[in-house]
Amino acid sequence: MQIHRLAGNPGRAGTSAVMAGDRGAWLSCYADDAVLYDPVGGSPLDAQGAGVRGLDGLDRFWRQGIAPNQVRFDVTAVHAAGDEAAVVATVPIRFPNDGVFVCTINHDNQVVSLRGYWDVQRVLSALSA
């Protein structure tokens, strides 16, 4: 199997599931022991910055961070290499927020790590304004 050709697929499937509001489809993109850093460095949903871990943690992240919002991804580029892919996107929830999301997949084509790079302070400031 050529993983480098598939690395972007779980990311695409995950963004599609989020936009459709399909929790089950989103969770199925992840391995049982997956870790989500969204964003890297922490947020109110990951105060320690240690990542949201496992399917139970991801389900909690969905309920607290995704379900209450109408999330859209405007993907401008996907760069797949090896077992990773970097997705460049704007995520307009209440205002545009640019980010880069790097996912690593396993041999079952499931995400084992997703690292989001975006400015959490900018988002928090806009939400409190």
UniProtKB/TrEMBL annotation:
Alphabetized Pfam families for the sequence: SnoaL_2
Gene3D superfamilies: 3.10.450.50
Residues covered by the SnoaL-like domain: 17-112
SUPFAM superfamilies membership: NTF2-like
InterPro entries on file: NTF2-like_dom_sf, SnoaL-like
Protein name per its UniProtKB record: Nuclear transport factor 2 family protein
Organism: Nonomuraea rosea
Top-level taxonomy: Bacteria, Bacillati, Actinomycetota, Actinomycetes, Streptosporangiales
